[in-house]
Amino acid sequence: MSEFVQIELDLSRSSAVTCAPTRRSAAVFWLQGITLIWMLVECGLSLYAAAVAHSPAMLAFGSDSFVELLSAGVVLWQFLPQASISERKAARAAGALLFALALIVGVVAIGSLNL
Q: Which of 10, 45, 79, 82 has the most CB within a 10 Å radius?
């Protein structure tokens, strides 16, 4: 246990790391299909409840469900053979969706203040 491992990092050489392509299995499409259906129902019901109750909290929850729905769509988009996108682009899209969600929740919160 007293042995040490030495790792040298040579930054002068740049080498691209390649990964094996992911296998598009039916399980990915099945799980994402269930997720999309669930998020669609959750989003629809919560936005309808927000409209009926005039509730900013339900509007924020519905917005969160909508962002989750779009994020699940981005994940599914990665695995579609006709329109596949890179993992980096998918991560950027998911990050942009989270910033949009933060903006929406912030606007709803400020709008619900009784000043």
A: 79
Q: What tens digit of pLDDT does each residue of 46-62 get?
A: 999 999 999 888 988 99
Single pTM value for the model: 0.66
Domain count, the chain: 1
Residue range(s) defining the domain that contains residue 78: 26-111
**Residue 5 lies inside a defined structural domain of this protein:** no
Instruction: Specify the higher pLDDT residue, 16 or 63.
Output: 63
Tell me the angle at which helices 56-79 and 87-111 cross, rounded to the nearest 10 degrees.
170
Q: Nearest Cα to 25, choosing from 92, 78, 73?
A: 78
